[in-house]
Amino acid sequence: MKGIISVDGGGTKSEILVVTSDGNVVYRSLVPSSNPNDIGMDIAFYNLNAGLKDALTFSSSNGIEIVSIFLGIAGIEFGNSISVLKEKLINSLEYKNIYVDGDLASVVELGLGELDSGLVIISGTGFNMALKDNDKITNIGGWGYMPDDYLSGFDLGRDALIYASRAINKVGEDTILVDLFEKELGNTLWYSMADIYKGGVTRVASFSRLVMEGYRSSDKVCSKIVNNRVDYLTSVIEKIMSNLNEKNIVLFGGVFEHNKEIVDRISNNLGSEYKISITTKKTVYGAVKVAFKYSKLTLNDDFESNFLESYNEVSK
Fold it and tell me: Which of 60, 72, 63 is nearest to 16 (CA)?
């Protein structure tokens, strides 16, 4: 039996699958973050290398010939990071058919497929966008959590910290965020800041939930945070898609999946000319599809249904 290994590497966790040529997921594991911008290349390599070794060992023990390995990694696009990670993995694993790209490669494959044009947007811990115009893919965003000031979990969480701290210091508007932070942290925000800094990007992104809780409670500050973020993003979307005949937008990530209010405001701002959809498919399936493209294996008609059924089983 032939198969592939795919990796969906993010800022919070990295998911590794072994998938056979008929679409069955026979192995799944989770390893920590593999975003080199957040944790450095050495730790990213360590996490991925350990996970891939286990996946290869499983495959060998179960008679599965791995034809290709594809890694779609968030934050890997800068400098020579792709080639560095690929070389380190090839040398360590003693396996040559390894392909590395940014996580957008998986998302574009999953979201737009054979469409001639469109935009994919990822909003989770971080943020990224890719514009497809015929065969040309343009990355918009993906600079990392500091310059990418659009609409990520980190952006919302950082806004929550900014406005709550201003309210505490009596230099900003009163907001429910102060109480929500104390409830979340079990202490005052001031007392908890050292632990928040230690938690890094992921910890800050987790506070996006507080913004949305305040938004649903009609808190003026939380409403301002969300509305300003969404309105700016939609102005960017209009600008970059102005010359496209087909205005397809596919949304990925927890910020969209869990917050219908955000998606509704994007849709209302843009109007009916734009065809907006949220995919519930896991981005790791996009990585699987890319891995099979590299493998040159022919996929049967039941591949996707087999994948979904078996993935749900191994994910329990």
Answer: 72
pLDDT by position in tens, the chain (length 316): 999 999 999 878 999 999 999 999 999 999 999 999 889 999 999 999 999 999 999 999 999 999 999 999 988 988 899 999 999 999 999 999 999 998 888 888 888 877 888 999 989 888 989 999 987 888 888 788 889 999 999 999 999 999 999 999 999 999 999 999 999 999 999 999 999 999 999 999 999 999 999 999 999 999 999 999 999 999 999 999 998 888 999 998 899 999 999 999 999 999 999 999 998 778 889 999 999 999 999 888 999 999 999 999 998 8
Find the angle CA(155)-CA(163)-CA(124) to the nearest 5 degrees: 20
Place domain 2-107+282-314 in its CATH homologous superfamily: ATPase, nucleotide binding domain (3.30.420.40)
pTM of the model: 0.78
Q: Count H helices, E strands: the chain?
A: 13, 10
Give the residue extent of every domain in the chain. 2-107+282-314, 153-223
Q: Phi and psi of 116, rounded to 5°? A: -75, -35
